Amino acid sequence: MALTQAGSSGDHWSSRTAFILAAVGAAVGLGNIWRFPTLAGENGGGAFVLVYIGFVILLGLPLVLSEILLGRAGGTDAIGSVEKVAEQSRRSRNWKGIGALQITAGFLILSFYSVVAGWVINYVLISGQDWLAALFSGAPFAPAFAGENQGTITGRMSELFASPWRLIGLHGIFMVATVWIVASGVHNGIERAAKWLMPAFFILLIIVTVYGAFTGNFAEAVAFMFTPDFSQLNPIALNEALGQALFSLSLAAGGLLTYGAYITRDVNLASTAVMIAMMDTGVAIIAGLMIFPIVFAVGLDPASGPALIFQSLPVAFNSMPAGALVGFVFFILIFFAALTSSISLLEGPTAWVIDRFRIVRPLAAIMVGSVAFLIGVICALGYNVWADVRPLGFWNAFAQNDILDALDGVTGKIMLPLGAFLVSIFIGWMADRRLVQQQTGLSNGMFAVWRFLVAWVCPIAVGLVLLFGLVPGLLGS
Ligand code: PFF
User: Fold this and answer.
1) Of all helices (H) and strands (E), which one includes residue 103?
2) CB 414 within 8 A of CB 469
3) CA 61 – ligand 1 centroid, Å
């Protein structure tokens, strides 16, 4: 462990590839594999996918570049970096509030993200057990949960939710793994984890997608995802699509700002940003093409919401060849994706604590991780002991939300759009133009296009979504 390191500012990625792997690792996570197919399923498929891709290109991509350049120009933790660029641009130092907002959002997301990752671990364990049982009885390619009926299989999710100890224990295991990696340093922890987990993730993703294409109903899945039915689009779907684009690209949560600070001067940021956005969106679409053929193969509903991967898929694997093995592989792949994302969520606040309190990295990571763990415990209890609690019951838009959903809603619908809005105003209007252009590495023409998107398109579009999220009832929810 890098015990000698007293500040985050001395750390650097060892290469451009290392940064891309870490940033793609941050971007590709539960958002791609759990949330994206869920939202696409609930919002009618094709039209949602199209709008989502539009948001990624017009808003997400310009913002990814804005955040990594802000991080690299500042070269320290998220708050310090924005403060430094504000100073160099002769603007108020209070702009550093952007960094504070982002770190807080990332910290809160981490606390519930880890709980959901705990569900994934639960399914890694039960599907692993199931496959081992099949293996030892001489049928390694048996379907999943052989001999069980649909009720028993879907009931596993309610069983898990009814057990506070199991939820908290699994959340704890995931948080310890996250803290361990971040505590080991940028180079020996984050970079190394991304270097192993991301290639493994991609291989598993391809295996399960090819499996789905051959054994499932691929044609129906393609039609569902790529035939837009615009009557399905409404303001709520647009709002969801933008929130999802920000979340999926890891924008406005301190992760990219902080990772950006570790990029060396020689790296071209514009092409790197394109790469990150393309890979993230590619994985989200492949995840849809992995999941829906399997869902359609057994005639299940694509709009089953958050239960899609935890209940519908296990049921599907129950009647598919080699379902036990593929189910196990599927949950391992999600686990890898979640882990490389959670480390970026923890790194933001940790880097700040290291710089602000001048303490060593492992201690900072443990402190931040412990508090996030406790908030996650409250979320986990929201499924059983505090099942009736609706923390934002007074607020129309969030009235039905349990504790975890409320935290997800406030961060995703308010804090992320607000953080992205402020970044676009800061980079588009406040920051020194020459400094910004130099960092992007863009030619004059491309720079003008990019700057127009950041200065005009982003604030207006994100501002509208923010308004919809903030004003209760405006979207009819
Ligand atoms: N992008 C991650 C996902 O799609 O699961 C979640 C995330 C990670 C959001 C890191 C924000 C962040 F800073």
Assistant:
1) helix 97-136
2) yes
3) 15
